[in-house]
Amino acid sequence: MQRKQHLFIPGPTPVPPEVAAAMTRPVIGHRGSDYASLQRYLTEKVQQVFQTKNDLFILTSSGTGAMEAAVTSSLNPGDKVLALITGQFGQRFAAIAERCGAEVERMEFPWGEAVDIEKVRARLEHGPQLEAVLVTHNETSTGVVNDVAAVGALVKDTPTLLLVDAVSSMGAMDIRTDEWGVDFMATSSQKAFMLPPGLAFLSVSPKGWRKVEKVSPRSFYFDLTAWRESGVKGFSPWTPNVSLLFGLEKALDLMFTEGLEQVWARHRRWARGVRAGLRAMGLELVAEDKWASPTVTAAYIPDGQADALRAAVKRDFGLCLAGGKGKLAGSIIRMSHMGYVDDLEILGALAVLELGLKQLGYPVKLGAGVAQAQAQFIEEV
Ligand SMILES: Cc1ncc(COP(=O)(O)O)c(C=O)c1O
């Protein structure tokens, strides 16, 4: 029998059966009134998740598409941009802006740490005027959350735009797009929204639109003015993935029935359990507690065996963990605790990880990590 795959990678995350079932509904035409009502309904619900009254678009792409849509629509070649980089995805954001011809100033922070707001403040106060600041909210490559509210407070009342990648946090965390002053907020479907890959969500503020109107769009597919024009009528400019939208309707239903605050609390609790569990296995975590991600935890595996450990637990138990990216390749494992998972699965994954460590000769005491996670979970039932 083919081994069951247990997805503990930070996206794609497991899809609830109700969501999978909803996606099997017969496809409907995308230029009719029933489609328009669906798109309007979904847009409004996703706006609630974003905590925004800004325009919001449901794009047919992965999250990188939403990041590219934001950049190509709001930046002219030669525009000065500050990219705050705390890991691989911060680098990607900078690379997209560079590809679009922006003059990118990279402000790099040690991987495993968050953006140092004082450095950003100093740069904004003393350096040349910037068109935009780019920041990753939840740096999935290290499991670190950046303080977007603080970055927003620095640029909100200035002409500088704030572009945020919230691909691996939106839906799992209390993210206040409008309150924080985010002009372009991007995320995608295959993380906390519990859907397969293929949809991206992007919000645009009035300040963002003022810049978009001055930029000649360099992408046809992602020309946001085309998305706005069709969106007003309840449509997408190009053929949308209707099946994923049916799934989104169900996924949002699950999230709102549970309650967003409850969803956020559950992610924080899982993160605490997983962190306690991994530490009890003797592993060093990449991120300190003060900026630890509620959706993904990264841990160092000594002696260069991170990928061997991942291969072993996948082969023997079907446990899929992510590895390190960029400079952390081969030295860490990343375990997701995002979306459609539960205590039972998380405890199982930790137990299997202990077995994998044991098999590779690490001095782990079987059950030690599970016990710490259990203790954490029982404290916060
Ligand atoms: C923080 C972050 N940004 C961007 C991306 C890229 O998104 P996608 O793979 O949906 O294009 C990811 C994917 O893991 C991510 O975690």
Compose a concise summary of this entry.
This protein is α/β, with parallel strands linked by helices and 381 residues long.
Order of helices and strands: EHHEHEHEHEEEHEEEHHHHEHEEEHH
**Which structural class best describes the helix and strand composition?**
alpha/beta
With strands numbered from the N-terminus, the spatial order across the biggest sheet is: 2-10-9-8-5-3-4
Please state the overall shape, judged from the principal axes of the Cα atoms.
globular
The total tally of domains equals 2
Tally of contiguous helical segments = 13
Terminal residue distance: 36 Å
Average predicted local confidence, pLDDT: 97
Main sheet: strands, sense, barrel: 7 strands, mixed
CATH class of the largest domain: Alpha Beta
What small molecules does the structure contain? pyridoxal-5'-phosphate
Rg measurement, Å: 21 Å
Helicity, as a percent range: 40-55%
Describe this structure in words.
- With 381 residues, this protein is an alpha/beta fold.
- Helices cover 42% and strands 15% of the residues.
- It contains 13 helices and 14 strands.
- It is globular and about 60 Å long.
- The two termini are 36 Å apart.
- The site of pyridoxal-5'-phosphate has 12 residues, from α3.
